[in-house]
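fold-stage: in
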Amino acid sequence: MPGPILYLPKGFDQVKYESFGDLNQVVATNKKTGEVLVIAHVEGLSSNQAEGQKQLRQRLDPKNATTNSEGSRLIGQLGGPGADSPGTRHSHITLYQNAEGRRQYQARKPGGRDYSGTADLRKTFTQR
């Protein structure tokens, strides 16, 4: 059963797809503010790099996009298994103030993955 839906906020206009084996994430940048939003474990997008990127492009295409009242675009559903109780689904959502903050965080993580479980990144990368 699909999980709750995930929307990409309006304004995040540079979007790419990344996959790590059977895991995936959507990386979106707001050109106006420089903020970078990373959403890991998106159900409904293939973990295959080429196929996942194609599916994401189709969903974000203005002719096909499903939007909410705020103009945010549907990208998929909560998708990550492996929580404490059976059947629980989750996604990791991380907002970086800028691309440099993301780069610094990735430099400390093996495999370049952004999601960190319960770590609170709000205090880590808020300096401009």
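fold-stage: in (second)
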Amino acid sequence: MKTIQEDFTEKINVFKDTVVEMVQGTFNTAGEMDPTVFGLIVKDNKIGLVVLLGLGELFTDDAHKEIAAAGIKKISKEFKFLAVGFAVEAWASNDPLTTGTVVTSEGELEENVIDPENKIEKKEVVLLTFETFDQEAANIWEITRAGDKPKLKRWQKKSWSKKNPNNKGKFADIIVEDYSQFAQELKTTLKDNLN
């Protein structure tokens, strides 16, 4: 018999594999990847998948990206995501990461910024990040544009590992509470025992 933790690990791995297939299939069919959020939920003791589409309009500038990030975090909390996947086209660089001072769209100086979009040696990629309450993973594919249809070429893959507390992007820490069955049962037991 599996433990609750083993069952949870199996479910998030199936979720991750399924989302990877969905993102690859979407890109191979459409030739692009609009920002998309995938949430793993449990409702009435059944596993479910929440998919948020149509987010592209919110990625036109930093202010709209902040609105999107806040909305995604709110939905994650409301639906009690156990795991989340976030897919988006982005720029990435192989260059050693350098930092500098840039002027933001609001006209403010920002120190120590890493900005792959403005690097000379950069790649267009599809970035797919995953997280649970305490774990993270990622798949990154380079977009190759030869011929009629763009294609994805595996670039980097990061297996599940402990969340890096230094990841502080807009779309980091989407899940801030542990909604797994074990955590919820522990909370209930502690609450009952303290009353």
